[in-house]
Amino acid sequence: MLSSVQRLSRDTGAAIDIDLFKRRTWNGFAADFVRIPAPALYDFKTEGSCYRILLLDLHRTDGITVVPGLPHSLSKNLRHKISFLPPGCHIEGWCAINRPAAITSVVIDPDVEFGHSVDLSKLPPRIEFDDQFLRAAMRRIQNLLSNPAQDPPGYAETLVALLSFDLLRQAGGRLPRPPAAGALNPQQVRLVTDYIEAHLSERPRISDLAALVNLTRYHFMRAFKLAVGVPPHQFMIGRRVERAKEMLSDQKQTIAGVALRTGFGTSLQLTRAFRRVVGTTPSEFRRHIALN
Fold first, then answer.
1. Residues 172, 75: Cα–Cα separation, whole Å
2. DSSP E strands, the chain
3. Given phi > 0 = left and psi -120 to 50 = alpha, else beta, which region is 259?
4. Is the N or the C terminus of the chain less surrounded, counting Cβ atoms within 10 Å?
5. Mean pLDDT per 10-residue interval, the chain, length 292 residues
6. 110 and 85, same structural domain?
7. Which residue segment(s) compose the domain that 143 sits in?
8. pLDDT tens, residue by residue, 63-109
């Protein structure tokens, strides 16, 4: 990951400044830790033939994370967030920070057997989710980078096995099922969700989304729910609320302005949807952010 992080503000494309970089390798896997000073503006891209688990500790003022087949992420608060990428799955995007950022990465060779029963190849990619058990295991591996003396034989391998089982637990304790018959395929899901992300403030019509994949409105609604798990309208409401949550972190933006920019139109409509999805009002959510 380190070699592929470049700073956008430099015409030369030189690597961004790094405060600290640590790396260790074991049989079949490696771990590294990087700390990036602020302010900084950089893009990133990782890909390869290994499993990659990332622990993010950063808060970006702007940016985007893109993984094929998943909705784009515009989240700003990425402290303690976990991402999992199987071989052949790449992640890219850009990030602007005004506070120091840190990333811990564990890379696992898929050809090495570790003596446990979890087949990571069956798990789907996930980005920027929270899990206290995965975070704790990643912190322990991070600690081994600074304190090799605390790594008795087999300890690091045990932590990697623990990561594998916790990833399986995050997947619901079972391997994902193949797409249901009649569901949108991954390429169609990406096409539709990318369009939704780019047009959230415009409140895309179901008929427009159906036209993207050459389906009737009725068949599209059914195929989308089979693939994603929720109806398209509910999915769009959820994405607009997530966008509103990001915008509410900026105290300079009014709630009425956030409602307008996220396609809700009025503060009342935003508040109704926000309470239904988040369980609180935009004003209460903003006050909670200010206190933390």
1. 24
2. 6-7, 20-26, 29-36, 40-46, 51-57, 60-66, 81-85, 91-97, 101-108, 126-129
3. alpha
4. C
5. 38 58 92 92 84 93 86 87 90 91 93 75 86 92 89 90 88 57 83 88 88 90 88 89 86 88 89 87 82 61
6. yes
7. 2-170
8. 899 888 788 888 888 999 999 999 888 888 899 999 999 999 999 99
| CATH at residue 24 | 2.60.120.10
pTM: 0.59
Does 39 sit behind a cis peptide bond, omega within 30 degrees of 0 on the bond before it?
Answer: yes
Please report whether residue 175 resides in a domain.
no
Give pLDDT, residue 180.
Answer: 64
Q: Do 274 and 219 belong to one domain?
A: yes
In angstroms, the Cα distances linking 216 to 98, 188, 225, 282, 286 are: 46, 14, 14, 36, 40
Separation of first and last alpha carbons in the chain: 31
Could you give the residue ranges of the DSSP H alpha helices within 129-262? 132-146, 155-170, 186-198, 206-212, 217-228, 232-248, 255-261
Same domain for 127 and 251, yes or no, is no
Amino acid letter for position 69: G
Structure tokens at 168: 């399986």
